[in-house]
Design brief:
By secondary structure, this protein is mainly beta. The chain has one helix and 14 strands; from the N terminus they run βαβββββββββββββ. 6% of the residues lie in helices and 60% in strands. Strands 3, 4, 5, 6, 7, 8, 9, 10, 11, 12, 13 and 14 form a twelve-stranded antiparallel beta sheet that branches. The chain has a two-stranded parallel sheet with strand order 1-2. It is globular, with a radius of gyration of 19 Å.
Length: 202
């Protein structure tokens, strides 16, 4: 038929979905149980999708791989679209499996490749936090320390030579046509429903 639903997420289900597309199905849905992304310490996954929509933005040839060996975790994500996405990281969990030291990180958003500098720490102790995250792309730099405990958020953001015109449509709709370069810092404190922000960005 024109619409096909495949139940499952293994290789057989993926092959069936791809075969349905080759045979002329216009709409193929893969109904699969995805890994629990809230527990990054146990994440092991392999996902391939011909098409995927995120916030109404279409992506093609989506591939996610995550593997764990002992306390070491590696993950990669690739997706083609108007603004392609690619992510790669290598990290190590602590013995209590509450903190993840991310030693290698690269993120491509649209035209820009961001690379992590140094080691950042993602923690699930008493909520969620990401500390000492530093990303560089040429002259651009982002520094981030963020924590989310229950409904409360506390974050510090630093920007150097941040080019607004290079933000992908996944982050900012293209119709906004942002331009300019930002430098400065900002703090966000309070609840997610009513956060307060102060900073000096110019």
């Amino acid at each position: 038929g024109r619409r096909v639903v495949v139940i499952g997420g293994g290789n057989t289900a993926i092959d069936a979905a791809m075969q349905a597309r080759r045979l002329g199905a216009e709409d193929v849905t893969l109904d699969a149980r995805l890994p629990d992304l809230r527990n990054v310490f146990d994440l092991e996954a392999h996902l391939t999708a011909v098409r995927l929509s995120v916030a109404d933005l279409p992506f093609e040839d989506v591939r996610l791989d995550a593997a764990r060996t002992g306390s070491a975790l590696t993950a990669s994500l690739q997706a083609r679209g108007d603004d392609p996405i690619a992510l790669s990281l290598a990290a190590r969990a602590d013995d209590a499996r509450q903190r993840l030291s991310i030693r290698e990180l690269s993120l491509t958003l649209g035209e820009v490749l961001w690379r992590g500098e140094g080691t950042s720490v993602l923690s699930l102790e008493n909520g969620f936090s990401w500390q000492d995250l530093v990303l560089r792309a040429g002259a651009q730099r982002i520094d981030l320390d963020a924590a989310l405990v229950g409904p409360r958020v506390d974050a510090k953001l630093g920007l150097q030579r941040f080019d607004l015109s290079l933000l992908p449509t996944l982050v900012v709709p293209g119709a906004l046509r942002l331009a300019g370069v930002l430098d400065g810092s900002a703090k966000l404190n309070g609840t997610l429903a009513r956060p307060a922000m102060e900073g000096d960005l110019k």
